[in-house]
Amino acid sequence: MGQLKIKDKSQREGYRPGEAIAILRYARISPLKARLVLREIQGKDVGEALYLLKVIPKRAARIVENLLKSAIANAEQKGLDLDRLYIKKAVADRGPMFRKWLPRAHGRATMLRKRLSHITIVVAERPEGQEED
Predict the structure, then answer these.
(1) Which of 3-7, 26-30, 121-125 has the lowest mean pLDDT?
(2) How many angstroms separate the CA atoms of 19 and 111, rounded?
(3) Which CATH number applies to 18-125?
(4) Closest to 114 measured CA to CA, from 44, 53, 29
(5) pLDDT digits over 94-106, tens only?
């Protein structure tokens, strides 16, 4: 368990020609809050997505913005055309959870759950002649 089913790198997401991937693991934000921001940018051009992330007043937007910049840098290293890049896939999966106890009144204790997430962004070149929907 925990291993990727696909052994061949060329068949994995982000290893296809015309795609670049960036993964942030163990981000200190709950997946639910990260997904709110990721839904806003999925399918958009990277320039428009970067602008949106600047103006969205959420903590997750700062985290996703840095990750998107990393994905763009990865695309540049692969030799992709930066003007035709769009966000093909943006997901936040559940990571492990910190559990700690908070002392409360009358000798009781309450469990605090600090949720972590694994955020993945895949950018790809938009085919020529195809416009954004």
Answers:
(1) 3-7
(2) 42
(3) 3.90.470.10
(4) 29
(5) 999 999 999 999 9
